[in-house]
Design a protein that fits this description.
Layout: H1 3-84, H2 115-146
Helix pairs in contact: 1-2
Organism: Orbus hercynius
InterPro entries: I-spanin
GO biological process, one term: viral release from host cell by cytolysis
């Protein structure tokens, strides 16, 4: 064997070892990055699951109070329709005890609202129902979602 052939062979072997070492180092770095990405992916999955659970809780609260609001408004509408159709009466407490007047005065008769006042009463009641439901929903959201973390 000639010196030149040995030199080329040794140079080729060294070049292959350097190339193999570089490839192995790249593979090692890739596995390290893969491990890091796997850890990050696990963290993202855990955060997503927490977020998903949170969204479900918020939806439960929203659905509960939306149903309650719809039911309360339907009941208010039903009462209003009964009063309008003379099925029921809207009774007011005027704060005075019932007294019969000996002079023939009409103090003992119940107070009656005008049509517009009656309608305004039920509109105000509807607004109160809406606000109460919103406040209760927000309170439950704060206690179950915000303060639970």
């Amino acid at each position: 064997m000639s010196k030149r052939f040995k030199f080329i062979t040794i140079a080729a072997i060294i070049a292959m070892l350097v190339l193999l070492t570089t490839i192995l180092a790249d593979i090692k770095n890739t596995y390290i990055k893969l491990g890091t990405l796997t850890t990050e992916l696990s963290q993202v999955k855990a955060e997503f699951n927490q977020y998903h659970t949170l969204v479900q809780k918020v939806n439960e609260i929203d659905n509960k109070f939306t149903r309650n609001l719809a039911d309360a408004k339907a009941e208010n509408d039903h009462r209003y329709n009964n009063v309008i159709n003379d099925v029921a009466r809207l009774q007011l407490n005027n704060g005075k005890p019932n007294q019969t007047s000996s002079a023939g005065m009409d103090d003992a008769n119940a107070c009656e609202l005008t049509g517009e006042a009656r309608q305004n009463y039920y509109l105000l009641r509807d607004d109160i129902i809406t606000k109460d439901t919103m406040i209760l929903g927000l309170q439950q959201y704060i206690s179950r979602i915000c303060l639970a973390e």
